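ok trying again, last paste got cut off:
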Amino acid sequence: MSAKRITIGRTFSQTPLQNEQASESPTQTFVLSTGKRALFHLERIDARYVEQQTFVVLETNGRDQAGLTPDSLRDIIRTIKLQQFFPAIGVKRDGRIEILDGSRRRAAAIYCKTGLDILVSDTAITTEEARKLAQDIQTAREHNLREVGLRLLSLKNGGMSQKEIAESQELSQAKVTRALHAASVPAELISLFPNHSELTYPDYKMLLMAAEKLAETGQPVERLIETVSVDVDTVCAREGLAEDEVKNHILRLVRNGSQTLTETPAKEKVLSETLWTFADKDRYARKKMRGRVFSYEFNRQSKELQEELDKVIAETLKKHLGEC
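nice, full thing came through this time. structure:
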């Protein structure tokens, strides 16, 4: 009989509820990507200490914490006040708990001011082991494109090429490009949307183009936020709108607002006034005005006329500006 293959990731021997009944401090063993085993025990963090005693690292967990709004957490908020079906999973680091899996449950617990159950390990787990374990045990909603991009962006900033990132993460290069585009959208623009998971790649692309256009014209993103924020609040307050309808309304506000801010003002029309009419069409004496700028133009005039004009202009300037 062949040897039993070692399972990487979860190795549940009992359900969380069975464990809870069997022991006051249930434990669970996880096999890491390196083959090392790590023992986890269940801890209950009081509501008062969830935020300060736990933390999330984007590069490990992969979830954009700025996107965990009440709207995006609605499904968990509805139940976590009554019960937490699955514990979060974390490791002890410098006296605090880094959440590998369950950052949505953590955010919902903080929002609802309730306690949080966490399977915690005191085992020394490297960053790479933690990242691989987090990928193996993800049980929550799939990470959106921006969250994937934010994780990949840290790899790119670390010196990896997009091709290397694609190979290491087992993603297509096209997926890496789209994710990095999504991650490049300023967080201020993303914050306008109550549920970030509704955003698609075309949405991120439009937002990125708007931000780049603002940058080209010297307009800060904050100016756009100020322009549309009141209307965005009005949209979010409307009852009966589906989440994708709210998103589309906000996208329209951003698109129109950015266009208004970046439109190049129409050049003022140049007005021309004829000072003298000549039989020869190549000769002219005229005055041109554009806004507060004016000039006099002469063509094919005698040297004597030019000298007389110079004299008159000099005397006039001295008369009006000589004491300034």
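cool. The chain has four domains: 1-141, 144-184, 186-265, 271-321. The first strand starts at residue 9 and ends at 10.
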